[in-house]
Amino acid sequence: MNSNIDEKLKQKFLNQAQKLLISSGKSIEDLQTLFRTIQQSDQYPYFQHIFKSTEVIPCDEHKYEIEYLKRGQAAWEKRIVKSLNTMCTEVNLPLARRRNESEMRSVRRHWNELGHISGDLNRFRPVYSAKDFLDVICVLVNPNLKIDEALWNSGLIKIPIVTKSFVEIKAFYSDLCPNIIQYCSDETFNEAKEEENIKLALQILEKKLNIKSVREYARRGCPSSLRGKLWSAMLNIEHCNWHVTYFNYLKQNVIDFDLLVDNLYFKDVKLTAVNDDQLFVFEDYLYQMLLLFSRDTYVQACFTASASGCQPTRSFIKKKSGVEECSVVYPPNGIIPFYGFSMLVAPMCFVFEDPVHLYFIFRQFYIKHFFNLHHISAAPNAIIGLCVLFESLLRQVSSELWFHLQNIQVQPLRIAFKWMMRAFSGYLACNQLLALWDRILAYDSLEILAVLAVAIFVLRKGNVLKESSETAIEAIFSDISSIKVIPLLQFFLGS
Amino acid sequence: MARVRCCTDLDKTVLTQNFDKRFWMTVNSDEDWNFYWASVTTVRAIFNPSNDHPRLTDNQVINHFPNHYELTRKDLMVKNIKRYRRELEKDGNLLAEKDDYGSYKYLDFIPVTYMMPADYNLFADDFRRDPNHTWIMKPAGRAQGKGIFLINKMSQIKKWSRDGKSVPSAAQPRETYVISKYIDNPLLIGGKKFDLRLYVLVTSFKPLKCYLYRLGFGRFCTVKYIPSTNDIDNMFVHLTNVSYQKQSEDYNSIHGGKWSIDNLRLYLEGTRGKKLTDRLFDEISWIIVHSLRAAAAVITSDRHCFECYGYDIIIDDNLKPWLIEVNASPSLTSTTANDRIMKFKLINDILNIVVPNGDIPDIRTKFSNISSSPEALGNFDVLYDEDQASCELNDKDFREQKARGGIVPLISKTGMPFGKTKQSSAWR
Amino acid sequence: MTTELNFKEQAFLQIQDRPNAPFHSGCKMFTWTCNQSPIKNFTSIEFVNEYTAFLSIKIKQHSEDFGPSKILSNHLDEWHVLLNRYQLMESCHGEIGSNRHMILNQKQFTFMPRAIYQIRFFLQQPSPIWKEFSIVNVQIHSQSSLSKDRKPSIERLLASTLINDDQMTETTFTKIPLITELSQHLQAMWTICAKMHQSDYGSDRIKRFDIDGSYDVQILSST
Fold this sequence. Notes:
The structure holds three protein chains of three kinds.
Chain A: H1 3-24, H2 31-40, H3 44-53, H4 67-91, E1 96-98, H5 101-109, H6 130-138, H7 149-152, H8 166-172, H9 191-207, H10 211-218, H11 227-234, H12 241-256, E2 257-259, H13 260-271, H14 283-294, H15 301-306, E3 314-317, E4 327-329, H16 355-368, H17 383-397, H18 399-407, H19 412-421, H20 430-443, H21 447-459, H22 461-466, H23 470-476, H24 485-494
Antiparallel strand pairs in A: 1-2, 3-4
Chain B: E1 5-8, H1 13-21, E2 25-26, E3 35-37, H2 40-47, E4 61-62, H3 69-72, H4 74-90, E5 113-116, H5 120-129, E6 135-139, E7 149-151, H6 154-166, E8 177-181, E9 188-189, E10 192-205, E11 208-213, E12 217-224, H7 235-238, H8 242-245, E13 258-260, H9 261-272, H10 274-296, E14 307-315, E15 321-327, H11 337-354, H12 374-377, E16 380-385, H13 395-403
Parallel strand pairs in B: 1-2, 1-3, 3-4
Antiparallel strand pairs in B: 5-8, 6-7, 6-8, 9-10, 10-11, 10-12, 10-14, 11-16, 12-13, 14-15
Chain C: E1 2-4, E2 9-12, E3 27-33, E4 39-40, E5 42-50, E6 54-61, H1 68-71, E7 79-87, E8 101-105, E9 115-124, E10 134-142, H2 154-161, H3 179-198, E11 217-220
Antiparallel strand pairs in C: 1-10, 2-3, 3-9, 4-9, 5-8, 5-10, 6-7, 6-9
């Protein structure tokens, strides 16, 4: 129970001790000398104090740890690993290897057009898609649940998570009600008002008030010229020199090592962003971002933060199989990408031009939010919670629509799932998408994704009620690029 | 109500579908027509005085001005703009103000250009002053990137002129070329070069009335831009023309390398800020107005005519726009699904403006009839309306606006100030 | 000191007048009685929840003045409420908190008993959607008479982390990278560590993913 907390503290302490020893310049022979040195240091009282004051406390961290979901995530991860291994054997390439000199030179030379270093991508295919993941979520069943058909037969998700009711959602997103002027609802915003708003944003940013005040502001959307600054503030990223150092460190890792997952990223960009009429221009940025990302061990933090108790996949470096000290996390960031992963970065290219800045924003956004979109957990912000929220909101808001779809045996979640898993990226016009993502940061929650998905169903309800085949329903929702997100949400939340 | 009799000598579905949508009657060009969407060659023939073509009646409109080439031929456009600048300067117009380096503050919007071979000596002088610069040679009368090449050595231009002389020139006189300073610091997005294609509809040159289409786009090169001289022969790096880029193996047929103006604005606002972005788009509007006013002096503003121009503009990395050329017949061939929709809308909106309400056109009421309600304009915005531009601005206001880096209003020759038109809102 | 509790008595509470009702009351009572000496210097109760929504705890305090034989009959020795309807699940119909590992201590308890003789857990689960509800691995922690501090001490920490000399095995480096390359990496690491420390990032999060410059991975092992 407490090992977790202790571990952190222990690490911190050991690092401190190490520093201390290095700076003391003494060579330490045995434990006693070591201990004396530490005792004499001025940090000793501090650590003594925090060790004593660290309470053996009951912690809330574990409330999202649900046994069968943990097992579900583990089984799912096992499946991905298996399919990655199969691919590995098929293409006859190692998962990771050190590049030789000439390859390193080539990567360095093509750093700004990394597409050039990708090999034959025909042999690669995405490891999993949104559909695969949904299928996995659908079959998760709580063994302790009385499957009362009457209670659980409608809807795809059988996991009893209690989500916000429509009334609670309305209260939570009260700033999105129709009579509050929003950015991005175009017409209502006149130039004078806009200028006033920009001035206000600048004031808030300048005063460096707390995150809360920035969020408060961003609830009504970010002016596109200040979005970068506001996002940085909300994600608590202050651009500094060490970012550059770290960026270059990751870059060096890209130069040094060739990872099989790189090909998955290349393939993904080619399949998605390159064919997107809004995002294709950023192709080369995306390669950089994704390859750096795959080598960033800091990203592993999302596993601890998610509190679902799951850990990233580990493997063993060559010829050291089974030796615990030689186990490594693969890929270094612990994330195996799915089909469409690159769409989670791509829209951010509209906001940040500097690759370093872009990288750290993306990383933080991912760790805080997007990771939850493809991780099995009971947390309300994670994908299962969003699915349950989607189904329950749709039932509450329009039972007519819900039962029509149940009658013709169409599961609306099958349509909405891919939208949510990609946070709508690639489905909406970019200015609309960014306005949506503003709200994710401002409300510090992904729930808006489920709300928007329901709103889209309600918007096209008339068409849906006329149709009775699955393909016809799918056709209605195949193109949602004309949706004006904020006015729609305002309409929906005001209803 | 009589149906409009229309005809076209181009086989473009975006045209015929728009005709069909209006239930217009398609007729042959030798029949009695009301609306003719014709190629430039046909229009030249119709307006040729030696031609026995009957004079156009009051109920006929056609899609080109008789001497549109004053604007759309590269050499003539440059000539007219140079003349326009000189005239403004002679009149002491504020717009012709020059900066400390002797270049125009507001009218320096085309790259330095010379006619070849006529201005050869002027070019040679200029080249010697700055021998490191790259220049671009373009045949004055051709389009779609044909015959274009880059040079950065004097020897190359000498070779070109030698080769030209060796060709027997009796049957075909030497084609005129323009040579322009190559914009070697273009704004790159995602490391790639692009130019803007904007559609401008002119319904009259005297008085000038023009509209700007909102759904313009950026055209991207498929290859990363590298400003090195090694790549001078790889035209995929330099030329953004879709017809040219299509030959590249990296050409994507889903979007065709086209990026909407809205996305460009979103990107620039996000990465460069709103002020600079607004200024850029305002400057673009002014470039168009200036170029049209420059041409207005010499173009026959025939009341039967309207014309839709394709403006090619390059933005450099200081966010300064440069006018590269104006096309008289922008391509109506669709490269992608979105392109098709956009071009269909373009023709649709043009027809709504030049043939209001789908009535038989009558050029005697050409201007009184046009409703200027935003709905009637579709995706067009009025860019400049000489008749209506009568908003009072005294010198003080003018200076204030200028100081704010905002819109600099156009001042007429007579000193009578013209108002600011729908400039900035045109881009929302 | 830790005492594990095994409940002999696990009873559903019946609804008084309907002992044979087709539904259960949603309330259980677990009782545990101290066999030997009572638990003194009690500090906390640890357990893993299994779908219990609310928990109440009552104890019988052992009054030290009484001998064990007298206690059973002594009416003064009443049940005292240690914890009243403590919420374990965020919503009784939802997963959250259902598998939670809990440690309850002084902060949650109404009072800190001197000694425990008998303890009763009242489990409530009003939601009908669950098959079972319970709490498992129940442990009572108390400070042993020596009052040994359970909290980590610097001494113990160091001792447990360092490996004794005789346990160290000789590491043989077969391939040592070029010294320039090595120093390049080291310097990068050094800078980053330093910067990491200055910033808010916990230094525990930054680590190299390779081992001695090697990251040759052939196959993923599913763990």
